[in-house]
């Protein structure tokens, strides 16, 4: 295992770029996973990391030690805890990172269950939403150019492995995608039909908008139908990730 002790080391500089820069992730086609469980999800999906990076202070962690031992054929770097903390995407470092190639999963030509996301900018929200989509069996998630980078380490962490099973297409022209979808497109709005009154058994694409402003009016107008989630409590709206989970699993309920 190679040890790096200087932040001027080229490998350390590249790691920092991958963690901090969406442009660098797109350019290299790589990203960074944080923590044992996310790395194990990657392995379970048949992907092999290009590199493992471990904090010297985490070598006595049994899970991390076992993972390092099982992946001896993968390049491994060790950093002092202070340097590791500088590139950790979380405030409390987990002790291990992995560099991987961004997977390119097959997108069905005519998906029957899809998700369109417009300008979701919070990494935690986006990751949680993708996790729900993967759990519900969504076949593709289309993201507008205004969404957070789907391969940001914090999105990956919140996604908890969703990225390895759910095809994700970024920087999409959502208007064109809606126009070309072969089923019903449903726009989440504050005013619309109650979700539970809509037959969701056919091909469906749910459209979820920005956390604060919702969907743009042009997308709302392009949708087959507008819907709302009935809320008997004295709250105006739901978190985007929570709203999406309700929609997706209502479709699961209707088609089980």
Automatic annotation (TrEMBL):
Gene Ontology biological process terms from the UniProt entry: methylation; RNA processing
tRNA/rRNA methyltransferase SpoU type domain: residues covered: 113-249
Domain MRM3-like substrate binding: start-end pairs: 9-98
Top enzyme class: transferase
Record carries keyword Methyltransferase: yes
InterPro entries (alphabetical): Alpha/beta_knot_MTases, MRM3-like_sub_bind, Ribosomal_eL30-like_sf, rRNA_Methyltransferase, SpoU_MeTrfase, tRNA_m1G_MTases_N
One Gene Ontology molecular-function label: RNA binding
Similarity section: Belongs to the class IV-like SAM-binding methyltransferase superfamily. RNA methyltransferase TrmH family.
The protein's name: 23S rRNA (Uridine(2479)-2'-O)-methyltransferase
